[in-house]
Specification:
By secondary structure, this protein is mainly α. It has helices at 11-27, 33-43, 47-58, 78-86, 98-104, 107-113, 125-135, 154-163, 171-177, 198-219, 223-227, 240-259, 263-270, 278-288, 292-304, 309-319, 322-327, 354-364, 375-384, 386-389, 413-416, 418-425, 431-441, 457-466, 469-481, 515-526; strands spanning 63-65, 90-96, 140-149, 368-371, 493-497, 500-504. It has a three-stranded antiparallel sheet with strand order 1-3-2. A hairpin with a 2-residue loop joins β5 (493-497) and β6 (500-504).
Length: 532
Amino acid sequence: MTQPDPLSPYYYHHNFQSLIGLVSERDWDLLTDKERAWLTSFQQLSFNAQCLLVRLLMRRHDYFLADKLTYSELGETWPLLHILADNGFVSITDTAPAEVLFNVLSKPQLIEAFPAVNVAKSASKTQWQTAITDTFSDPLVSPYSLVVCHQPDILPVLLLLYFGNSRQDLSQFIVAELGIQQFESYPVSQSERLFQHRQQIDDWLRLSALDDIAWQAKKAKRPASILALQSRLPQPFDWPPLERKRQRLVNRIAREFERHDDLSSALLLYKTTTQPPSRERQARILIKQGALDDASLIIAAMLDAPHDEEEYDVACRIAKQKPVREHGRLLPTHSVNPAAFETETLALTLEQRVEWEVADYYRHQGWQVWYSENSLLNALFGLFFWDILFLPIRGAFVNPFQRGPRDLYSDDFVTKRQSHIDARLANMGQARDWIARHYQQKQGIINDWVNWSVIEWPLLDAALNALTNRQLSACFSRILFDRRHNRRGHPDLFMCRDDAYQWVEVKGPGDVLQPHQRRWLQFFHQNGICAR
């Protein structure tokens, strides 16, 4: 398919055609009869009518003021609106619910539309709205022509099928076409698709709608709206991607109950999920309630079989709390010993951020310093495993615009690629070759592990010279074990001088090491990697 001129005024039409082209080819059997009919009828419209309809679908509402629908590339829109109306895509009306009309009309337009209302022109729009609803029955009739877009919910279905999530939209095409982002090539076919049944799509969209309500309620500081979602929660799903999504929402609602001191309701909800931080929150609630026996059982389970390193670290901290410690002998088998870390205290004038000041200090001592933070180890990991990360595993890649596999943080990510990962780790002697090859071949291509704006070959080369194959393998294995949390917490600075190197975590006045930073420093200490 030829790429359009990204500056073409019809870019959105091309993007929409790409969207429905893939969905029609790959997911036709997952569409309803109504959706298939819509797509068939859409393709039969004239080019300009298609463009106008796409414009309407991309807007946030279903009702539009007809006279405001002006697009320079389409010319006169009224004939196009009549074509859309004749084909059942829109309706043109002068009647609308009061709430809708108040959203689309400005105060001057309301004054013009309802001159019989007895209220001062200087009154606020809210006062005008109240007076109009007191005077006229709902729905309202106005002198303005309104366009009602039919079946606006088809776009969320198409976007979900194309992207496999409810976050990306048509703007993704634009950044790709402008060259702002370049993506890896991988097959996107029916055998690789995420959804297998229509019910999965409907359930996903319903959960996304509830997620959106929770998000909007949090932004508007309306906690009651979040709490009310409890009665709308669906039953557990058999399909893991959908169940993980449901459990994240359950945990969010439970946390809101917890904040409102309704610990019993929160505990009941947490007990229905296995996704972190469910066990942590259960343990903390049970400790507050004095149920130390039950809390100890949960803490012990977290210590014995943690979901990830973050959960283990949390369990260690909870186990050391006075009520739990006095209740029994529940102690973690491993703990981070701050004394194991080499520390140095510097007295510097802070004229810029503290990491840069410390970097300058070491440069004056003859070190070559990079402020790489999490980028260095992550880039080594991403470059070493690049081709394995982008293996065409079923459901891992469902659209051309992915930074990595969809299942990156799922429990079976490693299991699905175990043989490839084992073979690569067994061949650590070729690590430099793999990393250098991918660095050259993939330059600028989006990979969630490689921050091209920070990473340069001299930095990678210095790290590869510093670390032994055993140390590098240990770092990669640790990241693989807990990809979500172990991609963070790496020391701020990496530096080398002659044959010496070191990682340095920088803390300014009043700042303290975070748990995930302590874990990495402990790991470095245990594996003979120089860090302070």
